[in-house]
Write the structure tokens for this entry.
Amino acid sequence: MQSRRDVQRQRSRISGKKLVVRTLMFLLVVILVTWGTFALATQPMRSAQHQAIRLAKRYAGLKTANGFYTYNRDHTYYTVSGENRQGQAVLVIVPQKGGKLRVVKQSNGLTKQEAIAKVRSENKVKKVLRAAPGVFNDHVVWEVSYRNANGSLCYDLLNFTSGKYVQRINNL
């Protein structure tokens, strides 16, 4: 016959195991919900990227893709960087709403690093947030967004070919 203490110890061991199992189940549910929410939230961008790469390969002769950018101003553009069938480094700019694809040779303009370097050299840049090619007033541009020394948000548009400033928006 078991004593009262033995029965209580056995019950506490069982309830301790149940607590561990319930905690693990709760953590599993939280992880799955977080992963599902993230996957659902990023699905439209992944879809846009997949479609832009497909269009660039089909209509612009892109052989390999090695970069993807999103540009949002008056209109949204998706840019795919890579090599064409001739082995040249190109940017293929795809309008979100459909229309004509633009293909520019990277050798005919600024690189991403050159655009960032130009903005850094002429501004008090605390942190570059991103740089993306796009189209502004029917010209290919690099948009560089950054935080200045005051921590304010700034956007600089540089002409892709000449490197000249097209527009500056400071201290947002």
In short: The two ends are 78 Å apart (CA to CA). The helical segments are 4-59, 112-122. The longest strand covers residues 125-136. The beta strands are 62-72, 76-84, 89-95, 102-105, 125-136, 139-148, 153-159, 165-169.
